[in-house]
Amino acid sequence: MSPSRHGMSGADAAAQVRSLARPLRSVADLDPLVDQVGAARFVCLGEASHGTHEFYRWRALLSRRLIAERGFTWIGVEGDWPDCWRINRWVRGLDEQDLDVDGLLARFARWPTWMWANRDVAEFLDWLHRRNLALPPAERVGFYGLDVYSLWDSLREIIAWLEANAPDAVPTAHRAWQCFTPYREDPHEYAWSTRLVPLSCEPDVVALLAEVRGRMGARAQDDEGAFDTAQNAEVAADAEHYYRIMVRGDRESWNVRDRHMAATIDRISEHLGPRSKGLVWEHNTHVGDARATDMARGGLVNVGQLVRERHDDDGVALVGFASHRGSVLAAAAWGSPERSMLVPEARAGSHEDLLHQALGRPAVLPFGADRSGPWLSAWLGHRAIGVVYQPAREAGNYVPTRMGERYDALIWFEQTSALAPLHHEARPVEPELETEPSGF
């Protein structure tokens, strides 16, 4: 067994792994984890890829228990606000009740659609919908998108709401829309134009955000449509900023995105009240505290770090996922159709290699209060697979990580399988800029 770069004894590290691990065979085996994280106000649940069935399935099973047994009231995911708002309205029995869950998820059109339009998400949403309908409206669990990409969709939603509720503010929204019109809803084209000419639509979207904020005031607290519009204005402003920085190759774009997602978590929890409890579904690279990885040396922050910093007194738990080998649904290049790919055995000397050699079976590993010891305190590579994956370049998929500081618990699988998408990927009509899960 390979030692760490700090001279860790492999045998000692394996012994610590085995001392923490509990077998994972059935939903009942999640008991230690439910007990550990159930009292927190925010529980962030990761995934080591965006296309692995076991990560999605067990994250959903854990979420079911936390909702049913520990009173969690909302879920925030690494998805676009407008798309997930429609899901939120559906699962709470408010809109589009003529659709089944497959029909609802068929509306996901932005690449990569398989992240949310897949069989595991469909099964969870169908369960949540049925559970919600058996409860009074005030007790139904919501589903929200935390991401920043939906510039044009968010502008459309803002204009539609203002036309119906505040027509005198529509000119401000139209000015923002008209500024973006020449770029044909292509963020690449808009972003590149700002490199060539020192002009941007930033003043127009900032003015729109100020207009919406000024008009909403306390209204967004009690009016769901106003809250939706206020969040879409935040998305539009941050998306413009994100795309403009991203095309310049500035790594600060990662921070713009993760700060937006953390701020959205804050806004949702404030909107739902002090007794609300949130589950966050994102990639490990967003969920696991960046300060326990080499991301911190590059000046990068992430959602897990920001939620810990802002809400430690409320209770925060970060749960990572990992596996040794198997298959994954991913694409060979940005915007390409999805396919099932082989995930090779973990690299020697990685966290995944150590877990495989120490355990050899699926497990739940709650870390407890003491994060010292030869495994939890060791710096080892931790695999991160994005929506774009090239197995032949595995060396670049490992993030140096101190596991005991990055997460509060880990769910481990020996062998995993690819997600089952509800529909196959088409070439995107509205291309997006690539973001790698490592942030580089």
Task: Describe what is shown at a glance.
This protein has 440 residues and is α/β, with parallel strands linked by helices. The chain has helices at 10-20, 31-37, 53-70, 81-91, 101-105, 119-133, 151-165, 170-180, 187-196, 202-216, 219-222, 224-246, 252-272, 284-287, 303-311, 351-358, 403-406, and strands at residues 22-23, 42-45, 74-77, 142-145, 278-281, 316-330, 339-343, 363-366, 379-383, 398-402, 409-416.
Describe it.
This protein has 440 residues and is of the alpha/beta class. Helices cover 43% and strands 14% of the residues. It has 17 helices and eleven strands. It has helices at 10-20, 31-37, 53-70, 81-91, 101-105, 119-133, 151-165, 170-180, 187-196, 202-216, 219-222, 224-246, 252-272, 284-287, 303-311, 351-358, 403-406; strands at residues 22-23, 42-45, 74-77, 142-145, 278-281, 316-330, 339-343, 363-366, 379-383, 398-402, 409-416. The protein is globular, with a radius of gyration of 22 Å.
* Strand residue content: 5-15%
How many beta-strand segments? 11
| Low-confidence sequence ranges | 1-7, 435-440
Which shape, going by the Cα principal axes?
globular
- Number of helical regions: 17
Distance between the termini: 30 Å
Structural class of the secondary elements? alpha/beta
Q: How helical, in percent, are the residues?
A: 40-55%
- Major beta-sheet overview: 9 strands, mixed
Radius of gyration: 22 Å
Series of secondary-structure elements, N-terminal to C-terminal: HEHEHEHHHEHHHHHHHEHHEEHEEEHE
Mean pLDDT: 92
Give the SSE layout:
Blueprint: H1 10-20, E1 22-23, H2 31-37, E2 42-45, H3 53-70, E3 74-77, H4 81-91, H5 101-105, H6 119-133, E4 142-145, H7 151-165, H8 170-180, H9 187-196, H10 202-216, H11 219-222, H12 224-246, H13 252-272, E5 278-281, H14 284-287, H15 303-311, E6 316-330, E7 339-343, H16 351-358, E8 363-366, E9 379-383, E10 398-402, H17 403-406, E11 409-416
Parallel strand pairs: 2-5, 2-6, 3-4, 3-5, 6-11
Antiparallel strand pairs: 1-8, 6-7, 8-11, 9-10
